[in-house]
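Two quick folds needed for the group meeting slides. Do the first one here.
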Amino acid sequence: MKALIQRVKSASVDIAAKPHGAIGPGILLLLGVEKNDTEASADKLLQKVLNYRIFADTEGKMNLSLQQRQGGLLVVSQFTLVADTAKGLRPGFSKGATPEQGEALYDYFVRQARAQHPDVATGCFGADMQVSLINDGPVTFLLEV
């Protein structure tokens, strides 16, 4: 399971030109699910996301987590994150989960996030989404479990 996280001042998702999910300051998380991922890997990744220290403390150092800052978390499914780009000029998706497995683990991740964090918004699995963000920093990390 992979998560590309971006510290944002704000982020939002539109589907069919209609607002679907939005947050203020916090993390935009693009979530990629691979074939061998499980609920245990989703739990591990979520803990890493919620506790990863990417927000500035009073001295300007990255010492605070999303939970400490009580920022928003916008979770967007992103199957292209698990693409194999090592060879050729076209990405391969053989490592990716099936749509059914991907959606089930995405939904599980979101349920767990909502149970553990007060401000969670989402995109819609498999939808054609337009994601807007104001990256803060920019600060971007690829987390893998």
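Then this one, please, same format:
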Amino acid sequence: MGGEPSVAVDFADTLVTLTDPPTDLLASPEAMARWWEVQAGRLPDGPVPDPAAARRLRSAVRDLLDAHLEERPALQTSVEDVNAMAAAVPTSVRIAAHGTQMHAETRWHLETGGNAPLAAVARDAVVLVTDPERLKRLRRCANPDCSMLFLAETKRRLWCTANICGNRARVARHYQRSRSSDGEE
């Protein structure tokens, strides 16, 4: 978690859906705080979100992404939850001047309430699910024991991580080939 170009995808991946019940990687307050800390460079400043609000947003984002992959409509409540979280903290664009260099900067208006990190994740989800080109790159890991989602940079990418799930698949293929050739003798 933490390596995807979309923070919304990384956030959705904090729920492992292949276990029964699903495994919440943000179950403890420490884990929740750590995830937001790891993502700090990608998100606006703000307090660690309320766990219930964070889980509600994660569930909604996961539904939007799964709906796309499963070619089904997303739940209306998921759409509404993401929209509400995205709108909870207004922003404005401003000029940040550093000597002779100027660049655009987003100001998060925290005085209106809401949680800026949650709003940023929700907005990232909105941008992702409304961008057909980026959405074409959304994949579920090809490892049947993994529920991670990712944005594929190439059409050939099959696994969430080449060094974990990809390596496991290669090892399994090698094992299967060696068992097959051993059995043929």
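Slide caption for protein two: The domain at 7-184 is CATH 1.10.3300.10 (Jann2411-like fold).
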